[in-house]
Design goal:
By secondary structure, this protein is an alpha/beta fold. The protein contains 11 helices and 8 strands.
């Protein structure tokens, strides 16, 4: 079964828009765990516009007795303060994501941005701490090759292009999916696991869950958006049921 890791960033976004402690990120984590989730994802950005270092530490403490059965995945660009936080918390997985200044959300994998030269050293250090490392990538052969050369354990395929193609209809969806399937097969052939995330939802996941060798999907925005109307626990169960089928 494909593992679901719920990204709780948007809970922190709503909290930070008003200040104070509501809604509680830890309560959201607890609801996800009660629904049966085996993974929690956070992305602490440099501007702290949603998840903060304190959130990361609090979630790590809440999961302490559940790990590694429940995996903690921390996403971010390999800046010094981020790496120091990962060293401190030592999550099961660290997903390294390139960041473009001023971006609202992630918009490209490592194949399209500078800075990749630092990845082998960063990955080697994190792996020495027992942290599995995944690289956020576009579904391109050169990106998969880069991940292997850098020493990554997994790739996380950036799925927004697939989501946009899915909206255009079955033919465009299948054409896009084929490129992701090819990338997944290439990653597997090179000895790496396959994760995916960004704009996956209950509609497009029906197709994407069939991706060869898919280990994990990280989903946040779609889950939290639907949770506004039907509740977080119900939505999480919907995703878990979909992935189980």
């Amino acid at each position: 079964m494909v593992r679901l890791s719920v990204n709780v960033n948007k809970v922190a976004t709503l909290r930070n828009s008003r200040g104070g402690a509501a809604p509680s990120v830890l309560e959201a984590v607890d609801v996800c765990l009660a629904a049966g989730v085996k993974g929690i994802t956070v992305h602490p950005r440099a501007d702290q516009r949603h998840i903060t270092p304190t959130d990361v530490r609090d979630i790590a403490a809440r999961l302490r007795n559940l790990r590694p059965a429940v995996e903690f995945n921390i996403e971010g660009d390999p800046r010094p303060d981020f790496l120091e936080l990962v060293r401190e918390v030592q999550p099961e997985q660290c997903t390294l994501v390139p960041v473009v200044p001023g971006e609202v959300t992630s918009q490209a994998g490592w194949s399209r941005v500078p800075g990749a030269e630092q990845l082998p050293g960063v990955i080697a250090e994190l792996r020495s701490l027992g942290v599995r490392v995944s690289l956020f990538l576009d579904p391109l052969p050169e990106a998969i090759a880069l991940a292997q050369l850098a020493g990554a354990d997994r790739v996380e395929l950036y799925t927004e292009p697939f989501a946009r193609a899915f909206e255009q209809g079955p033919s465009a969806a299948q054409a896009s999916f084929a490129s992701y399937a090819a990338a997944a097969r290439e990653a597997h052939a090179r000895g790496m696991g396959v994760n995916a995330g960004h704009d996956l939802d209950l509609q497009n996941l029906v197709l994407f869950r069939t991706l060869p060798y898919l280990d994990e999907v990280s989903i946040g925005h779609a889950i939290m958006s639907r949770a506004l109307f039907v509740g977080l626990e119900q939505v999480v169960r919907e995703y878990l049921d979909l992935l189980a089928n």
